[in-house]
Amino acid sequence: MELALFSILNGVVYGMLLFMLSSGLTLIFGMMGVLNFAHAGFYMLGAYLAYTLSVHLGFWTGLLVAPPLVGLLGALVERHGLRRVHRFGHVAELIFTFGVAILIEELVQFIWGRPAKSYTVPALLDFPLFRVFQTTFPAYKAFMLLISVGIFVFLFYVLARTRAGLIIQASLTHPGMVAMLGHNVPRVFMVVFGIGSALAALAGVIAGPVLGTFPGMAQVLGSIVFVVVVIGGLGSLTGAFFASLLIGIVQTFAVALDYSLGDLAGGLGLTVGRTGLLSDLWPITIARVAPILPYLLLILILIARPTGLFGTRET
Questions:
Q1: What was the pLDDT predicted at 51?
Q2: CA-to-CA distance for 228 and 302, rounded, in angstroms?
Q3: C-alpha dihedral over 222, 44, 250, 223, to 10 degrees?
Q4: Is residue 305 exposed (0-12), middle (13-18) or buried (19+ Cβ within 10 Å)?
Q5: Which of 1.10.3470, 3.20.20, 1.20.120, 3.40.390 is the CATH number of 2-304?
Q6: Nearest-angstrom CA–CA distance, 248 and 7
Q7: Is the confidence at residue 314, as pLDDT, over 60?
Q8: Are 233 and 59 in contact (CB under 8 A)?
Q9: In whole numbers, what is the pLDDT of the chain averaged over residues?
Q10: For 88-136, what is each residue's pLDDT tens digit?
Q11: What pLDDT was estimated at residue 102?
Q12: Computed from CA positions of residues 294, 296, 298, 304, in that sequence, does the dihedral angle turn out positive or negative?
């Protein structure tokens, strides 16, 4: 009971963090058709900027200031870089964003150095929210969950209920018509790219104290985010939401389970040999294979439904 409860809670927190990071990438792809390889770099940059601001002005200042700064940087990258290579096709866009990702990583190491930073949880939220048996649930994780849910509700409200959201969605499907109605479509794209970058930075700000703030943090979550976007369906915010929760809960449960693959096979009624070609695999615990489970899930989804859970087949 205790293991299941806290695995679900931690899985939901981790999944909503993945959604916050993948939602920006989904917005950018849905609007512009660009798989932004630099997205995880903006996530890392948000964490480092928030760390620096927290040292001098406190955690809350970093939370409020770092995402808009990174969002502004993302908008400038789109305006003066990505827009110029757009006419050369998707390959040029991918190479450009990959170069931006490398540049951000090198700049972070040049400015802040290679050692991890002591970006800590604010004192206001550094206490256990509740306790079940011998395990406590930190208040900061509840704060992360609250922010993530707020972003989810805000995005869906803006896209579905506001005039700006209608313009954004129309710019994706009918950019010529939107332009004839007097809207600046390239500016809409720039704003969306900036918002997506700011969402990535916000994820970095709140994840930095928990997951660590170090130069490799973009690589840790960068590939998982692309898995989330593909499983959910490219360009689908609903798909990104459910895929994030699915991966978060599955991976958290896997980490918590101290059973070997042999034990799992035995529980399913299968007989495994302790000698032979695959004998070395059966003692491996499920926790050790947890990092590869999202990629296995990705392969299964692509086999069964190549467009993703909520993706639509293009005609």
A1: 95
A2: 12
A3: 0
A4: middle
A5: 1.10.3470
A6: 10
A7: no
A8: no
A9: 84
A10: 887 888 899 999 999 999 999 999 999 999 888 998 988 888 887 777 8
A11: 93
A12: negative
pLDDT of residue 278: 61
Q: Which residues neighbour 210 within 8 Å (Cβ) at sequence distance 6 or greater?
A: 121, 140, 141, 144
Between helices 59-77 and 39-57, what is the axis angle to 10°?
150
pLDDT digits (tens, 9 = 90+) for 193-207: 899 899 999 999 999
168 vs 28: CA distance, rounded Å: 11
Model pTM score: 0.87
Rounded to whole angstroms, how far apart are CA atoms 238 and 112? 36
Helical (H) or strand (E) element with 191: helix 185-211
Q: Residue 222: phi, psi to the nearest 5?
A: -60, -50
